[in-house]
Amino acid sequence: MFQLQSIMRTISVLVIFLILGFSTQAQGKQWTLAECVQHALENNISIKQSELDLKLTDAEKLSATGNFLPSINAGASVSENTGLSFNPVTNNAQTTTFLSVTGNINVGYTLFDGLQNIRQVQRAKLSKLSAEYRLDKMKDDIALFVANAYLTVLNNKANLASAKSQNLVTVEQIERTNALVDAGTLPRGDLLEIEATNASELQNIAVLENAVTISLISLAQLLLIEDYQNFDIVDEGYDVVMNEISEKPVSEIIASAEENRSEVKIAEQDVALAEKDLQLAKANYLPTLSAFFGYNTRYTDATSFEQFVDPNNPTSTQQIGVVQETGQAVIGEFPNTITREVGAAPFGEQLYLNDGISYGLQLNIPILNGFSVRSNVMRSKVNVERTKYQLEQAKLDLESNVYQAYMDAKGSLKAYEAAQKALESQELAYQYAKDRYDVGLTNAFDFSQSKVRYDNAAIALNQAKYDYIFKLKVLELYFGIEPTDLKF
């Protein structure tokens, strides 16, 4: 009877595992760590914002390049005047109603501005380079976040698998103990102790299942995946492998980090930007020279009055004086003019006749501007010194972080090796306790305590394993390995 129950339970367990296997396959794709990292790098919101910051530097560069081009502006106006107004063509006051049109084109070009245009282009290039380094740092950070979340899921899954595996042993012990109790070989207290252990293990399995679900949801949220229920990861093939980077001297890793990591490069670009801003501020001490050219014309439909020689009586004579000695009158001949109203000339003709051109140079020499230039230069100098200190601090922080990561990797490896030995020892102790319990040489309480210590050692090994893998990945990133090239 006992053998039949054991066979039936084994078959039931196999059926359950088969069902779970088919269910997992039905859920769809299982994500690898490399796929998770790549997906995050392509879809993470923070990375997309950094990419937008990089695009803004293109606009900055375009604006700086455009300063080398002349400015060209055209304008036109149309108005209708009623009452006393000045005719825009004759410049005479008229009381009438007329339409007037004016147009102009102005061209300006800066010949010298203290080299500000050149330095603005240089600054735009530095700004773009800084944005690229910030994007690289964001990608490194996101890759670490994803790796940490992924390894957390693996750790929780490994703990859950270990707990379920040990619970199967407990279930078998319950069946065997129950048979021995019924046969009178063991007291009922041993059965109750094993059943209490089973209840505690089932409770722990429920907690671990919840931990797996929560960690999967956290990883899916980090990847911006909304289908939490069907999201799962590949939980195989992530073993501890010896890495040549962990064997390198810490000085070599620090030197590689200073050469490749974005933290120092960002700080260096901040210094270069501050120095360029100082040059731009000092350029305001220098005069600026610009050239200009303007063209304007006008049209009006207002009538005007013009004087003409009378064709019927072209001249008239008038006395203009007297000769003092003789008293003889002096007669002069003058043209005999008449005034008549003249209509507006055609539109095209007026634009041709009424146009004008202006051109020249303009020199602006700064003399006193409320110390605004000097104060800007002072602020820029202070900012240069501040960024230099920040660069020194960035190098110190990077060296400290790399050294800490190096020691963490070394320490986590030792912890993993110690956990392996502890598990081996606990496994031997557990097997010994199990053998003694099977022949009735120890009680259920001592056996359950040995089993608990063995289970805890297995969990500790899982934690040490994935902690070491994560610490090793941190060290690889500091050494200069790209996030997508991390090896697991």
TrEMBL record:
Q: What keywords would UniProt list here? A: Cell outer membrane, Coiled coil, Membrane, Transmembrane, Transmembrane beta strand, Transport
Q: What PANTHER family does UniProt report for this protein, alphabetically?
A: OUTER MEMBRANE PROTEIN TOLC
The record, for InterPro entries, names: OMP_efflux, TolC-like
* Coiled-coil segments on the chain, per record: 257-284
Its subcellular locations are: Cell outer membrane
Similarity comment text for this entry: Belongs to the outer membrane factor (OMF) (TC 1.B.17) family.
Q: What Gene Ontology terms describe where this protein resides (cellular component)?
A: cell outer membrane; efflux pump complex
Q: Name one GO molecular function term.
A: porin activity
Q: What is this protein called?
A: Outer membrane protein
Q: Which domain of life does this protein belong to?
A: Bacteria
